[in-house]
UniProtKB/TrEMBL annotation:
Cofactor(s) listed: Mg(2+)
Domain Mandelate racemase/muconate lactonizing enzyme C-terminal stretches: 131-222
EC category: isomerase
The gene coding this protein: ycjG
Cofactor: binding details: Binds 1 Mg(2+) ion per subunit.
Pfam families: MR_MLE_C, MR_MLE_N
GO molecular function: metal ion binding; racemase and epimerase activity, acting on amino acids and derivatives
Matches recorded under SMART domains: MR_MLE
PANTHER family: D-GALACTONATE DEHYDRATASE-RELATED (PTHR48080), ENOLASE SUPERFAMILY MEMBER DDB_G0284701 (PTHR48080:SF3)
Keyword Kinase: no
Protein residues bound to Mg(2+): D175, E201, D224
Protein name: Dipeptide epimerase
Length: 327
């Protein structure tokens, strides 16, 4: 039976709204890529991201354009050359990983040499809002081990202080999503250090972050929008202490594994993150994140409903995927 490709668009409602410095969204619009071969099914999910010029329509069209190659038994290695990094390649790459594992009778866990993958402590995200609202959300989740706080305005000091007071014992990541002006950068970093913040993510716009190389950084600073694939790493060494690897940026698990290896060689700390998607999108990232310093794979926790048979979450932990879901 020849290989076949199916592309589906799905929408999962978000609990309330997910708000960052660039705006708010109320649904996670994802693309499900299904590859069938010899009666075996492999699946991968991606989340198109407008910040990178992607829409559901453009990403679906990109996958469709690759249909002849995919259905002609394109391998994961060939895929890296056939499609550029981004959400479209991610969906195809992860579907191929899933298909390969199920076809071989092994699992991705075994193929990656993970003898006993463990549950991971994942961040839980608090959306950008007024300081008292964010403090209330932080207080309601203060028993979680790790919180990720969306900031990214010209004056976030009150937000940072309010959240720390509401969650005095939690480790906290601040994610500015490129939103801090240069003139407040050092002030916000000093406040972050005073409030025992573990990591500050992408404070300045990608391509306009030279100032990070010129100032003292009193807390760890992590690249997100500034880093997409392995080729970006060398130029960031003077500006960032950590990098956020997301499969929708790298274009799948294959490139993410290579990027992680090179980042570790360059002494970057590793964060494995996600877009807001379902457990199918998180599953390969949980395996990638097994030895990461920071894990932010809470996408399904932000949804009103997850995909059936999703990952197991309890308190601050997320467990590795069962092969019935992926891999």
């Amino acid at each position: 039976m020849p290989r076949s490709l199916e592309i589906q668009t799905e929408s999962f409602p978000i609990l309330g709204a997910f708000t960052i410095s660039r705006g708010a969204k109320t649904s996670a619009d994802v693309i499900l890529c299904t590859i069938r071969e010899h009666g075996i099914v492999g699946q991968g999910e991606c989340v198109p991201y407008r910040r990178y010029g992607e829409t559901v329509e453009s990403v679906a069209a990109q996958i469709e354009a690759a249909r002849p190659l995919i259905e002609a038994s394109l391998t994961r290695q060939e895929l890296q050359r056939a499609m550029p990094p981004g959400a479209a390649r991610n969906a195809v790459d992860c579907a191929l990983w899933d298909l390969e594992a199920k076809s071989s009778g092994n699992s991705v866990i075994k193929d990656l040499g993970l003898t006993k993958p463990k549950p991971l402590t994942t961040a839980f995200t608090i959306s950008l809002g007024e300081p008292d609202v964010m403090a209330g959300q932080a207080r309601a989740n203060a028993d979680r081990a790790l919180l990720k706080i969306k900031v990214g305005t010209g004056d976030d000091e009150r937000r940072i202080r309010a959240v720390r007071e509401a969650a005095p014992n939690a480790a906290i990541i601040l994610d500015a999503n490129e939103g801090w002006p240069e003139e407040t950068l050092e002030h916000h970093l000093r406040i972050a250090a005073e409030m025992r913040i573990a990591l500050v993510e992408q404070p300045l716009p990608a391509g306009k972050d030279d100032l990070l190389a010129e100032i003292r950084r009193p807390v760890l600073v992590c690249a997100d929008e500034s880093v997409h694939h392995t080729g970006d790493l060398a130029s960031l060494r003077d500006r960032y202490d950590a990098i956020n690897i997301k499969l929708d940026k790298t274009g799948g698990l294959t490139e993410a594994l290579a990027m992680k290896k090179e980042a570790q060689r360059l002494d970057f700390k590793i964060m494995v993150g996600c877009m807001v998607g379902t457990s199918l999108a998180m599953a390969p990232a949980v395996l990638l994140a097994q030895d990461a310093e920071f894990v932010d794979l809470d996408g399904p926790l932000l949804l009103a409903r997850d995909r059936e048979g999703g990952l197991r979450y309890a308190a601050s932990l997320v467990w590795p995927p069962e092969t019935t879901l992926w891999g």
